């Protein structure tokens, strides 16, 4: 059943990860849940990973082996903003902030503030990204 309070533009999609629901059908997600899952799929996919759609995804995966520096955090923010603007028209990204509390662990939290296009509801999503730290990378921040 569809949620009458959620515009159809926000949509319904196959749940991720793909699974079967209690009725034996393919599980689906709707509304903002579907939107956030779609955003996570975009960010989790490296361009070239999908053979039939080689441009799909986020270039953030180019940063996997790079040290965590202020410049590289800025590049990550730009790559996330670009990917979501291109591949997810249901959300208008207003702010992207990449933060690393401890560069020696390779952990980066990407905080995304966005507005749902059809409802003007402001929401945020935190996407964890992990780089592979090298020797001496932690002195840059």
Describe it:
This protein is an alpha+beta fold. It has one domain (12-139): Nuclear Transport Factor 2, Chain: A. Helices cover 23% and strands 24% of the residues. It is built from 2 helices and 5 strands. It has helices at 31-44, 70-87, and strands at residues 12-14, 28-30, 91-99, 107-116, 122-130. The strands form 2 sheets. The chain has a 3-stranded antiparallel beta sheet, covered by helices on one side. Strands 1-2 form a two-stranded antiparallel sheet. Strand 3 (91-99) and strand 4 (107-116) form a beta hairpin. It starts with 11 loop residues before the first strand and ends in an 11-residue tail after the last strand. Mean pLDDT is 85; it is low at 1-8.
In short, what is this structure?
The protein has 141 residues and is α+β, with helices and mostly antiparallel strands.
Write the layout of secondary structure elements.
Blueprint: E1 12-14, E2 28-30, H1 31-44, H2 70-87, E3 91-99, E4 107-116, E5 122-130
Antiparallel strand pairs: 1-2, 3-4, 4-5
């Amino acid at each position: 059943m569809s949620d009458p309070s959620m515009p159809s533009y926000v949509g319904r999609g196959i749940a991720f990860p793909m699974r079967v629901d209690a009725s034996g059908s393919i599980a689906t997600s709707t509304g903002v849940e579907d939107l956030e899952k779609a955003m996570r799929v975009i960010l989790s996919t490296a361009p070239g990973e999908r053979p039939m759609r080689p441009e799909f995804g986020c270039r953030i995966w180019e940063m996997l082996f790079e040290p965590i520096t202020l410049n590289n955090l800025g590049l990550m923010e730009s790559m996330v903003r670009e990917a979501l603007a291109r591949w997810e028209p249901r959300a208008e990204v207003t702010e992207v902030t990449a933060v690393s509390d401890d560069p020696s662990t390779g952990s980066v939290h990407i905080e995304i503030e966005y507005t749902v296009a059809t409802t003007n509801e402001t929401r945020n999503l935190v996407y964890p990204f992990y780089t592979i730290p090298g020797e001496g990378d932690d002195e840059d921040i």
